[in-house]
Design a protein that fits this description.
Elements: H1 10-18, H2 22-34, H3 38-52, H4 59-89, E1 95-97, H5 99-107, E2 117-121, H6 127-136, E3 140-141, E4 160-161, E5 167-171, H7 185-190, E6 193-197, E7 200-204, H8 207-221, H9 227-240, H10 247-257, H11 260-274, H12 280-286, H13 293-305, H14 314-321, H15 325-336, H16 340-347, H17 358-380, H18 382-403
Parallel strand pairs: 2-5
Antiparallel strand pairs: 1-2, 3-4, 6-7
Amino acid sequence: MKLVEPGYPADNKVQILSGLDRQWWQALLAEAERQSVTPFLYAALARLEREHSLDFPNRDKLYQSYVINAGRNTLIMHDAEILLSSLKKAGIAAVGLKGVYLLENVYENIGARSMNDIDILVKKQDLAGAMEVFKGLGYQATTYFDLDDENVDTKHVPPMQKAGGALVEVHWTLLEEDEPFTIDAAALWERVEPAAIAGVEALTLGIEDLILHLSLHLTYQHYLQLGLRGLLDIALVIDKFKEEIDWQLLVQIAKTWGAERVTAITLKLVETQLKVPIPPEVYGGLLPEPLSPDLLENARGVLLDRERLMSLTPDLVEMNASKSVFSKLRIGLERIFIPRIDLARIYNIPPDSIKVFGFYWVRLKYLFRNYWGTVRRLWSDRHSSQPALEKAKTSYSLHDWMSER
């Protein structure tokens, strides 16, 4: 962990690494891969190699992986340059979110962080215009979307893509409106700041909003399942902008969003795991009582254990815990007969089409193919499935705790 701590001295890192045998090096590299921080670790090792003559095993393999990642990111940022320039030409203000901003402005190394898509935030009234700009560049939404729908259960247009281009997610909000948080979009835009992204004069979230957004993204939206990389994003932002952060304003914004618990647990993980100091009064401003050690340990375990929970969905955990056959049946039917708008987005068909009913059968087959094995193991082999089930329960109970008001 110390090797990726933002403030850990280089000499101390060299001392730790010089004492590792080959077996420990292999364990270190495997854990870096598991935590999705291999590119960042390689960049740190290469710096130590230059400045402290450090030798490290598997250098060529790590370098090749780093170069591939840097090349991929270079192509993505080239696409970002075209997209942001086109939006600017059309008079549409655009904020670079997550990786597209962090890569150049926080990591400052094109290959040090993996990135899969381009996230851009525009004002809701500019959404139609932004989509037209992107369509003019050859991008198309990858599934059904209609601006006239209510769309309270989504925060961005379905990923847009063109042949050979990176996926683009055009956001009009940071979090779905049907989530138990309230983000004031107008206030958010009042706090945006100028930023150079891919060589284009664009915008970034205010530093306090950036920290809160990354916290919600890692801890709530992704159930702490992004590994150490998600936490490293936040730690590096806080470390880089520590002199500029208005912690009182951050607490105030978190309260208006209803994200006090998400913010508190995320910042405590940043402080305890990556040793980035957080002013003590921040926690008192967010929560009336200190976070319990058990709660923090559960969150740390979910973050670092990297237990994949995709098969053990909240519905399956609830179904397994229920003693009522009718309750189990109800949960199963609710997962099959989802709203038509959701089915339309999954299978790219208009929700008012008669064909939509046939896709409920398609969905039933999909659920059976992907989850029946898990259901069968839960019923027939409770002993072997219990550890994974307990970890899933911990993750989902943390998620529920964060959304309580």
